[in-house]
Amino acid sequence: MTLRRATVATVAAVLTLGACGTTYIDTSKTVPPSDVTTTTFHPVAQDTPLATLLGDIRALMLHLDEQIIDDDNVPQTMTRLDELWTVAEQEIRDRNPDDVFPFQQAIDLAHSGAERKRPADASKGYKVLIAAIAAYPAG
């Protein structure tokens, strides 16, 4: 009976711990793009309404996880995200510095996903951003 319990416990431990792995993308298996295009964005105006900035950040982060998987324009997306966040952060900070944290957390997760090729981080960053926007006081 003790052997049976030990076997069941071992199987349960293997199944439980086996689900906690980290996923990485093997970039050596990707096919290099045959047509590389460069996108140039207009500078972000300092007087851009916060709602517009947050909408643009949301749009960029929406498919960032897929871009990471496809290795598709991630550096350009992150550059634009940083440009938008620089202006948005200042506006949020001017209203109430305590409100910056959840937005910064979302941006940091996006960076983690892009730099470490971890689409799950980018996806989580998007979810954190959506929650932060929903909780942010309008006006």
Notes on the protein architecture:
This protein has about 140 residues and is mainly α. It has six helices and no strands. It has one domain. About 65% of the residues lie in helices and about 0% in strands. Helix 2 packs antiparallel against helix 4, helix 4 packs antiparallel against helix 5 and helix 5 runs antiparallel to helix 6. The protein is flat and about 70 Å long. The model has no long low-confidence stretch (mean pLDDT about 85).
Reconstruct the topology from this structure.
Blueprint lengths: L1 H17 L31 H13 L1 H7 L3 H22 L4 H17 L2 H17 L4
Helix pairs in contact: 2-4, 2-6, 3-6, 4-5, 5-6
What is the count of helical runs? Answer: 6
What would you report as the Rg, rounded to the nearest angstrom?
20 Å
Give the amount of beta strand, in percent: under 5%
Q: What structural category characterises the helix and strand content? A: mainly alpha
Helix share of residues? 55-70%
Mean pLDDT: 83
Number of domains: 1
Largest sheet: none
Number of strands: 0
Quick summary:
Helix content is 67%, strand content 0%. The protein has six helices and no strands.
Keywords:
0% strand, single chain, mainly alpha, 139 residues
